[in-house]
Amino acid sequence: MQRQSNIGPAVRALLIAGLSAGAGLAQAQSAPVMKWIVPYPPGGVTDQVSRFMADRMTKALGQTIVIENRPGAGSRIGTDAVAKGPTDGNTLLFTNSNFSFLVITNPKAPLDPVKALAPVSLLATYGVPIISSNSIPASTLQEFVDYAKKNPGKLSYGSAGIGSAVHFFGEYFKILTGTSMEHVPYKSTSEALTAVVRGELAMAFDATAKPMIDDGRVKLLAVTSRTRDPRFPKTPTALEAGLKDFVLESWQGILAPTGTPQPAIERVTRAANAVLAEPDIQKRYAELGMVTEGGAATQLSKVVNDEIRMYQGIARQAKIQFD
Asked: How far apart are CA 319 and CA 323, in angstroms?
C-alpha cells in the first residue's frame, strides 16, 4: 500500500507546457542567480534533495540556482539568514520538518520563523524507519514493545539532540506504548545510528538507516509514515503493526522571506509542481523513501501549522523542557 504523487497527468501536461514558455522568457531576460540556503551540512538527505531539485528547476525556470549550506543551531542559522534576506524572490530556504520545531524549542527567540517566512512549495513527505539493535531479542515492533515493558528503564533510544524531531518521536512512542526508555542525545543522527549498530542504544528513528538495514547491521521494525515506505514495501507501518495513532511524517519544502511578491512565489511554485510531475524525479524521491507532493503553496502552511500543534501537545505530555 503505497501513496501516489498528488500530481495528475493532465495537470502535469499543462504545467510543463506553460513552464516551457516561461523558462524561455526568463532566459531571454538573463534572470539573476537564485540562491537556495540549506540550513544543514552538505551530504545529508535534505542537501541531496536540494541539489537534484535545483538542477532540474534551473532548467524549468531558465534561471541558475545555487545551493549555499549554512548549518548550525538546529537549522536556525540558515533559516534566520533567509528570513532577514532580500524579498526579491531570489533567496529561498530549502528545509525540512525541523523548521516547525524552531517555534517549539525556542518560543522566545527574537525571530519567529513561521511569521518571517512564507510557504512556496511542499515538495515531499516521508516517514522514518524505526530500527533496533541486533542485541535486542525482537523482530517485530510488538515484540520490541513487549521486551521494553519487561525491562523498564533499561533500554535507551538516541536522537540528534534535545528538541530534535527524533526526540519528539521517541517520547511520543513511549507515551503510546507505556514504555520507559532513556533518551540519549547525540550531536547528530549519524552518531545515534552508529550507537544502535554497536548495541549501545536499543533503538532509534532514522531516515538514513537503509544501508545498515540492507546489510543487517540493524533491524527494521516498522516505519512511521501513514503508508509504507517505497524502499521497504514488505515492512508494515507502525499503524499496521498495532501502534494506534503513531503516524509521524516529515517533509521537505521551500519557503521565501515574508514580503516576497506573490508573483515571484507563484513562479517558483509552478516550477516545483512541474518538476515534481516528472517520472524520473518521482523515482528519485521514492529511492529516498519519499512521496512527492506539490500543489498550492498553502499546503505547506497547513502542514507546518498542524505539525506545530501536534508536537506542542507531545512536549506537554512528555514534559519536555526547553531552556
From this structure: 13
